[in-house]
Amino acid sequence: MYFVEVYEQFFEGNGKYEIFSSRVFYSLRVVLSRILLIFCFAHIIEKGWDEIISQTVSNNPELRTGKSMGGRTMKQGSFLTSDLNMKRQGISVIWGTFLSQLDDHNGTAVEVMGVDKASTLMKNFFLNIRREEYIYFVKENEISTIHRNPLEGPYPYGRTGMTARDPLQGFLCLKYDKAGKPDTRIIKPGKLTPFIPGRGGFAAPLQWSGPGKSQLERLSNGKYRHIASYNLDELIDLGWDGAMYVSTRGRHAVIDKYVPFINGYDSDSEDEYEPIDVEAGKRAGIIGLSPDEKGKHIIFRMMNDDFHHVVLTSNGFALP
């Protein structure tokens, strides 16, 4: 319990929500893992376990011979016989034994740990972490000035959509249309779309509190300019991260086609739109899916907490 309290106080007290903005929130686990790993090594040194491991390896040279646990022959000069691997194996044994005793509610483990010393070490360690250890990105207002092409580069590792094991993390956009009726869209994330986790580890939905949120302005002829008619530079200036949705609202030429999604710039069934150069949009990668996107796996969570696993098609989704 104490460790959890220190963890929460540290990240709350140092402005977690300012540092880890929505654009870089996905990196939080990586940063935390690194800091916790450094803490584990600090604890090992504090307890003198590293010296115990070094002495054990020195007194038992046979540990570097024979076969590994996986059955591989340990050749001299290889990683298996290196000091790094010996130390890694020793640390794993010590931590494994210690955690096993904790799982069995063995009081010996608590005595070995030394609660008071562990408490002091945790306080000193977490309260003295330099900001440079956990700040890897510029602030949100500075990021917004950096223009990146969302059509270039790969999807984030683990969310490539190549297989059912690393699907794209789609999400719902929940809002009200101009008539005040509930309106839901399924959003396909882009290569730069931040992953904001919600319940069950799925991407959190994007929710609007009420109608009248559209960013589109009515032209002098009474029509609107559809998001699919914007060129790539204009979309990047608006902060497009590559997310798309299948447009099914309004009167325009891209019904049932994938178009860019930018919060507030999606179409409405009440509106009429200016003509759209569909072929130019396809060539630019703004309208429709590129060939390498078709068939990608995607999952998204519905409002009843059920999740759907489908694959992308030219005009929507299909079962895999």
Summarize the model shown:
The protein is of the alpha/beta class and 320 residues long. It is built from 10 helices and 9 strands.
Fold and architecture overview:
Strand 7 (297-301) and strand 8 form a beta hairpin. The protein folds into two domains: 2-143, no CATH class; 168-318, no CATH class. It has 320 residues and is an alpha/beta fold. The strands form three sheets. A four-stranded mixed sheet has the order 1-7-8-9, with no helix packed on it. Strands 3-2-4 form a three-stranded mixed sheet, with no helix packed on it. The chain has a two-stranded antiparallel ribbon with strand order 5-6. Helix content is 33%, strand content 12%. The chain has helices spanning 2-13, 16-19, 28-47, 49-59, 83-103, 107-113, 115-127, 140-143, 232-237, 278-284; strands at residues 168-169, 171-176, 182-187, 206-207, 244-247, 257-260, 297-301, 307-313, 316-318.
